[in-house]
Each structure stands twice: as structure tokens, then as C-alpha cells.
User: What shape does this take?
Amino acid sequence: MRACLRLLALALAAWGFALFPAEAHMLPDRTVTLNVVNAEVYTAASIPVSALTRWDTDRDGRLSSGEVSRGQPGIASDFAARFRISSGGRAAQPVGTLILASEAGGAGHAVDHVIILQRSRLPAAPETLAVEVDLFGSGPGGGDMTLTAARGQVSEAAVFSPLTRRHVFFRSPVRVFLDNVVAGAAHILRGPDHLVFLLTLLLAGAGWRYWASVTAAFTLAHSLSLSAAALGVVRLDPGLVEPAIGASLVMMAGLNLAGRTPPIGLRLVLVVGCGLLHGLGFASGLGALPLDASTRLSTLAGFNLGVEAGQLVFLGGVLFAGHLLGRRAPGALRAVATPAAAGLALVFGLVLTVERLVSG
Assistant: This one.
């Protein structure tokens, strides 16, 4: 079964390369804020020009002040159609929109994103607020958008992407908890770095006692650092954390490739240290979001539980698949899988570390 796990590690590491460059923990740089006052919603959005190509008449990837001025009615209409606000199934109606060139380019300069200010009105003061977005650019950071909605003293934020285009704000703590369970599970299952790392732990030893001990140590460590980071107790630059996560994969894969398995006590210490790093990476996926106390706790608890659930589903599936494949895989294939899986995981970790150092 252990040899078959190596085959699965080989396949997963190859999948990680297919998804590379990994962007599991990168925070989005496009932002939108909503302020709800009674039945009116005030929106301020920074939208990349690559999401508004229809109004880039000279096709240079930027909007000049003239293009912004001439495109005001069209951009406003485009924004209203692709940025939809509703409550209880009833859409908010725009009553005023203003498009401004961002200050980044300076006066008279073309810019790569515009600021859109809009006032819209709902039929009544909303209990919950649904937002649906289809304004994602093609440039760096253009595929994600952080949207913060505020109503009185309550503030909630969500990350939108081409895969997550809709979010409902001001839900009950129970609904927030359940939604973040799903978000946490999806986050780890989409992160090849974390999954390859988990498999390097499984490949370093055999037996349920070993697998349970290293998995428990990794889980407790990343749960602790995720909670501490999300609550603001610990703050580390993602530009340092992300390369360190890649380096942790290099270290574990290197030990496996060299065939040097430290004593279980030392290995657990290494696993705990790596788990603390990975937890900080999970926290960047959760995001440093401006939430009120009750929503923050619901979000953190749900996201943390989702990460653990996704991890257990993955590990359970891997062990079950390994058990089935152990009876059928040819002996020669199992023999070459051991160094191949460790070597590919090592190279993947090195490339991941370098990419994150360069991009950070």
C-alpha cells in the first residue's frame, strides 16, 4: 500500500505542475466597498480596464481621460449589468453613477483601472444583500476581487473570482459558519502544495499509528497558527510565509528522496513547524477581512473546520485508493515510483519556492 501511495504522490505532484504557478494564497488586489444606509447602497469600485475592453477604443489596455469621459454612459450601463445588487430577489436600481480615472496614472495619463461610484436604491431596507459580479480582468490580480459591505457597525467581506461570482452578505452566524466550511474544504483541495506535502508525510512511514500521529500533529499546528493569524495575534508577511511553505515541501521531499527518516520524535517536531507555516498560508486564503466579532468567529470556525474536513476527505481517499491499487500495480512500477515521486515532489517544491520568492 505504501508503494501505491508513492504512485499517487507522483500523479499529484504532476497535477501541481499543471496548475503552476500556484496562487492558492495570494490576496486579490481589486477592491469594492458597499455602504448600506436604510434602503440605499453606496458603491465604490476599482475595476481593471481589462474587464472593460469595450471602452478601450485604442486597444492599448488602458483608458485615457478622454476615453473615460466619452465612455461614461456606456461604462455606467455596463457596470450596472455586470455588478448586480439585490435583496429578497428584488434588484437595486441605480440612481446615479460616476466614473473616474484612478489617481495612479496622474492627471492626463491613461490608467489600467477606473473608479466607479454608484448610488442605488432597494425597495426596502435589506435584511441580507446579494451581490453578483462579472467584472474580472485578465491582468495580474484581475481575476479576483475583494468586496466589503458595511451596514451601521457591521462589516463583512468576501473574495469574488470567476469561480465565485455571488455572495450574500449579512447572513446569520449559522449560515456564515456553514458557507465557510465549504470554503475551507475547497481551499485545501485546490492547493497542490498542501496536498503534496501531506503525501510526503504519508510516504515517510508506514502503518496507521504513524499516519495518525503525523496527521494529528500537522492538523493541530496549522489550526493553531490559522486561528492566531485570523484573530490578529500573529502577523507575518505573506511574502515570507509563501516561500517558506514551498521550502517545507522541499525539506520533507528531500528527506524522503535521501531515504533518511528521522526518529519519530524529531519528525513530529518538523511536522509541527511545517504545520505552523501552512496554517499561516491558510489564513491568507481566509484573508485579513474587516469583520465584526460574531461574524469573525463564525467565519474562522467554519473555515478551520472546512480545512480539516477537506484534509480528511483527501487522506481517506488516498489511503483507500492506495489499498485498492496495492493489489494490482506491477512490482516494477511500484519500485520506480518511490524515487520518482520523491524527486518530482522535490522539484515541484523548489520551483514553487523560487516562483514565490520572485513574485513576492
Notes: The chain is about 55% helix and 20% strand. Confidence is low (pLDDT under 50) at residues 7-29. The CA atoms of residues 6 and 320 lie 14 Å apart.
